[in-house]
Structures are given as C-alpha cells and as structure tokens.
Amino acid sequence: MGATSMLKLFSLLPWASTSDDDMVELTRAELESLRAEIVDADERESHLKAQLEHLDEILKSARLSGYLYIRTRWTELPGEPPIIDDGDVDDWLPRFVVLNGSCVYYYLKSTDLSPQDSTVLSDIVEVGPLPNFVRENQQTRYGFYILTCHGLRFECASDSKIQADSWMTALQDDCKFEQPLTA
User: PANTHER family in the record, alphabetically (predicted)?
Assistant: First the structure.
C-alpha cells in the first residue's frame, strides 16, 4: 500500500485529519484509553522479549532440542488387566523437547517460559526404537520410546529419521545405556 493510499485511509478515521488547521480534541477518557493501550503494548513487548531471551538461553545450553510428537503411556502393573490397545487413536501431540543437563524438558511451545513436564535422566531405565508408521498424509514418522522407573513411557516421533536417531543416541549415551546392535 502506497503512502497516498495510507493517507486516504487515515483521513477516513474520525480523529485523523490531513489539514494542519484542524485540531484534534480528545476527551480525558479517550486520552486515558490511549495511554492504557500504550502501556499494554509495552508490557506485551517486554513479555515477548523475555520469551525470546529464555529461548535463546535454552538453545545455547541445551545438548539437543527440537519439536517431537509425543504421547504418554503407562506400563501395566503386576495384577492389573491388560491395557486397551488404542493404536487407532491419534493422540500424538507436538512438543518442544529439550535435553539439558540431567533432565529432558517438555514444553508446549518453544516460546514457553516453563516446561509442561520433565524427566530426570536417572529415572530413565530404557530407551529404544519404535516401529515407523505412516500418517494419513502418507508421511512416515520415525519413533522411539523413553521408559521411566515409575512405569511412564514417553513415545516420541519425528518426521526426520536423523532427528529421531539423534535423540535416541543422545539419551542412550547420557543414561549410560549400551546402544543396541542394528542389523
């Protein structure tokens, strides 16, 4: 949009004028409303800057980070009935996952200031591959799982085989697991 059309657009606004002779008068309430909007915009800007700085720090210090599709499962305890097979349910949710220090952090989005969940590496008892699966859009997802000593199993998947393999290798290395032999 050119400058001329922008001026025409602004001239249609009730408080705008293209003439130097016209004075704009605002009521006290209108002035206070504009001031409040400016303060709100400043607060939003500060919050967004804090989010960006937080993300920058996470990415600088993290060993590995990125979006993965995650779903959680519980392993059945002795004496419990078998868990219902829900393979037909698409409950894979995208999460921003960060391997940093002695924890794996799960964020809803990469810009979140605090994680939704976390797993301490010392609680992980097993990391292994999951079978690849094809989505409705014919795209293959490559998966792996993380099993904790509490019976919680995080199933993770990525559209990238390299990303899934990198996560599995990094977790196995950090948890001091021996890598399985691949055929």
Answer: OS05G0595500 PROTEIN (PTHR34837:SF2)
Joined tokens for residue 65: 């980070």
Q: Is the pLDDT of residue 130 over 90?
A: yes
Radius of gyration for the chain, computed over Cα atoms and rounded to the nearest angstrom:
26
Domain 63-78+91-174 CATH (choose: 3.40.710.10, 3.40.50.300, 1.20.1060.10, 2.30.29.30): 2.30.29.30
Per-residue pLDDT tens digits for 147-175: 999 989 999 999 999 999 999 999 999 98
User: Within 10 Å of residue 172's Cβ, how many Cβ atoms?
Assistant: 18
Instruction: Band the pLDDT of 183: cuts 50, 70, 90.
Output: very low
Contact 92, 145 (CB under 8 A): no
